[in-house]
């Protein structure tokens, strides 16, 4: 598919009536044979495009696959996604993005995979990535942020992800600090932020996001059967993955300036959705295990833990378990 395909799909989506091929050609400033050839290719790729003689073309349905031009056609302008790559299969989208970053690629590349053979979460844990059932993607970024602000990327991704799901489904979402998203008491998404430098010493960040979208209960491994869920399991309906992908990228792009311009508002949004604040928790941070009351998120998104002796610990990362009262 080509960039022209994204423009054709966007034009068809914007029209509520049949759109003549001649109008498409004029609007996109290409020849009529070019439009007709691309429409045929789109139909061959699985797009259900109805043609009515004398009226034109109407887009009825898109395939349930992630296709770069399909996502672009729903996205509009987004600096975070100047290029979208979709792999049918890869080991890990984060690994692919990290490799490109080390090789000197510029930011603004988003890498999706329909299947990950070695998907991973924090602390090197495996991430269950059922083929064609979720959104597994990573963003290569060279953010124009001071080094002190880079840790804020996880909070930015978490708030953007929670907001997208809430707006799409109308259901309240919780954030389990620092990087997990919960719905109805079950984990439905996670975030993995990493960083590195290329051969010229230029730093880059990779923010990976995994969302359980349309898995059934049987598609989760036994150890996750009672802990994880998909959006489809909770809502009782299949979710359009390309639409969700575009909504999420748009939300990430819209909120990105807040990292510097209004991070207190982002912290407030994370605080409102916090699964931990007010609870007694155990936090494993490196080789240390701490217990205390999750009291607050500080201005940089770190967790403030009130210990039993009254002291306050400030944590930038860790594995958190809520201790039942």
From TrEMBL:
* InterPro entries, alphabetized: aa-tRNA-synth_II/BPL/LPL (IPR045864), ArsR-like_HTH (IPR011991), Bifunct_BirA (IPR030855), Biotin_CoA_COase_ligase (IPR004408), BPL_C (IPR003142), BPL_LPL_catalytic (IPR004143), HTH_11 (IPR013196), Transcriptional_repressor_C (IPR008988)
**One GO BP annotation of this record:** regulation of DNA-templated transcription
The Enzyme Commission number assigned here is: 6.3.4.15
Say yes or no: keyword Ligase present. Answer: yes
Write out the GO MF terms: ATP binding; biotin--[biotin carboxyl-carrier protein] ligase activity; DNA binding
Which PROSITE patterns does its entry note? BPL_LPL_CATALYTIC
Q: Which residues bind biotin?
A: 92-94, 116, 120-122, 187
Q: Which GO terms describe its cellular component?
A: cytoplasm
Name the catalysed reactions: biotin + L-lysyl-[protein] + ATP = N(6)-biotinyl-L-lysyl-[protein] + AMP + diphosphate + H(+)
Give a yes or no for keyword Ubl conjugation in this entry: no
Pfam families per record:
BPL_C, BPL_LplA_LipB, HTH_11
Limits of the BPL/LPL catalytic domain? 69-260
Keywords assigned by UniProt, alphabetized: ATP-binding, Biotin, DNA-binding, Ligase, Nucleotide-binding, Repressor, Transcription, Transcription regulation
Q: Which CDD domains match?
A: BPL, HTH_ARSR
Q: What does the UniProt function comment say about this protein?
A: Acts both as a biotin--[acetyl-CoA-carboxylase] ligase and a repressor.
Record-linked NCBIfam families:
birA_ligase
* Record's protein name: Bifunctional ligase/repressor BirA
Originating species: Chthoniobacter flavus Ellin428
């Amino acid at each position: 598919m080509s960039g022209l395909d994204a423009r054709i799909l966007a034009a068809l989506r914007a029209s509520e009536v049949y759109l003549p091929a001649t109008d498409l050609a004029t609007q996109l400033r290409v020849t009529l044979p070019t439009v007709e050839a691309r429409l045929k290719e789109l139909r061959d790729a699985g797009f259900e495009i109805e043609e009515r003689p004398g009226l034109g073309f109407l887009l009825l349905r898109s395939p349930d696959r992630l296709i770069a031009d399909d996502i672009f056609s729903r996205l509009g302008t987004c600096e975070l996604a100047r290029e979208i790559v979709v792999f049918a299969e890869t080991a890990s989208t984060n690994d692919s993005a990290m490799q490109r970053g080390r090789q000197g690629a510029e930011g603004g590349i988003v890498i999706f995979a329909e299947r990950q053979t070695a998907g991973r979460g924090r602390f090197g844990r495996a991430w269950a990535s059922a083929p064609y059932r979720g959104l597994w993607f990573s963003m290569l970024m060279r953010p124009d942020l001071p080094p002190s602000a880079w840790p804020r990327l996880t909070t930015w991704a978490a708030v953007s992800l929670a907001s997208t799901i809430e707006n799409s489904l109308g259901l309240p979402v919780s954030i389990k600090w620092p990087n997990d998203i919960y719905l109805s008491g079950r984990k439905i998404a996670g975030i993995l932020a990493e960083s590195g430098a290329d051969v010229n010493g230029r730093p880059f960040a990779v923010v990976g996001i995994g969302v359980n979208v349309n898995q059934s209960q049987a598609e989760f491994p036994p150890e996750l059967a009672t802990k994880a869920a998909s959006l489809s399991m909770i809502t009782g309906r299949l979710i359009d993955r390309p639409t969700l992908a575009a909504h999420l990228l748009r939300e990430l792009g819209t909120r990105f300036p807040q990292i510097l311009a209004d991070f207190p508002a982002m912290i407030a949004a994370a605080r409102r959705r916090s699964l931990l604040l007010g609870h007694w928790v155990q936090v494993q941070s490196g080789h240390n295990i701490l217990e205390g009351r999750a009291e607050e998120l500080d201005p940089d998104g770190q967790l403030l833990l009130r210990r039993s002796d009254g002291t306050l610990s400030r944590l930038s990362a860790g594995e958190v378990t809520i201790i039942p009262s």
